[in-house]
Design goal:
The structure holds 2 protein chains of 2 kinds. Chain A is mainly β. Chain A is built from no helices and 11 strands. The model of chain B has no long low-confidence stretch (mean pLDDT 93). The chains are: A mainly beta, B mainly beta.
Chain lengths: 116, 110
């Protein structure tokens, strides 16, 4: 597609509910990143994929967070047993380069998750 | 680990010039980015510096000093639409991820 597409745009979940957030990167982009952005803060790194391989998941806050990209294109971020502190905007970004990115990422519009 | 510092808020006047500073400490360095983020929207890429010096792109310029761990974003001929958050971000040595600062909220007044 022309840009990075994320769905849903907004999600309200009851505490304890599982959620799945989808990211459709720009076609052909090798690298895919997930970030979490709290209100008034910068994006916080969660995890990184190169094609289907998850090369870095050091930013995932707990084992309730899980991400996958099984065919090297669409990615899903799953949060199990959501808690109120999970409320944030979840941003997906993609890049065509394998590693050294000498230009920026293209971000999607994000999914705003509210846990009530 | 990474530590990125930038001012929380700045205010400037339409038509003026503003400089947003960023200092960073990193265990490895593979480039510094500036992004613009309007409220409720995704960050958009503005500039990238990997070597010392000034990179100019229209009304926006970005400077880097690797020895000082310092960068700035210079915005000239400010317009009302430049009111946004400006995020300083550093790519770590392996180049696999970019770490963002908390952002500087710029308010442009008439």
């Amino acid at each position: 597609g022309a840009g990075v597409s994320q769905s849903p745009r907004y999600k309200v979940a009851k505490r304890g509910q599982d959620v799945a957030l989808r990211c459709d990167p720009i076609s052909g982009h090798v690298s895919l990143f997930w970030y979490q952005q709290a209100l008034g803060q910068g994006p916080e790194f969660l995890t990184y994929f190169q094609n289907e391989a998850q090369l870095d998941k050091s930013g995932l806050p707990s084992d309730r967070f899980f991400a996958e990209r099984p065919e090297g294109s669409v990615s899903t971020l799953k949060i199990q047993r959501t808690q109120q502190e999970d409320s944030a905007v979840y941003l997906c970004a993609s890049s065509p380069r394998l590693d050294r990115s000498n230009y920026g990422y293209t971000f999607g519009s994000g999914t705003r998750l509210t846990v009530v | 680990g990474q530590n990125i510092d930038q001012p929380t808020e700045m205010t400037a006047t339409e038509g003026a010039i503003v400089q947003i500073n960023c200092t960073y400490q990193t265990s490895g360095f593979n480039g510094l980015f500036w992004y613009q983020q309007h409220a409720g929207e995704a960050p958009t890429f503005l500039s990238y510096n990997v070597l010392d010096g000034l990179e100019e792109k229209g009304r926006f310029s970005s400077f880097l000093s690797r020895s000082k761990g310092y960068s700035y974003l210079l915005l000239k001929e400010l317009q009302m639409k430049d009111s946004a958050s400006y995020l300083c971000a550093v790519s770590e040595g392996g180049g696999f991820k970019t770490i963002f600062g908390a952002g500087t909220r710029l308010f442009v007044k008439a």
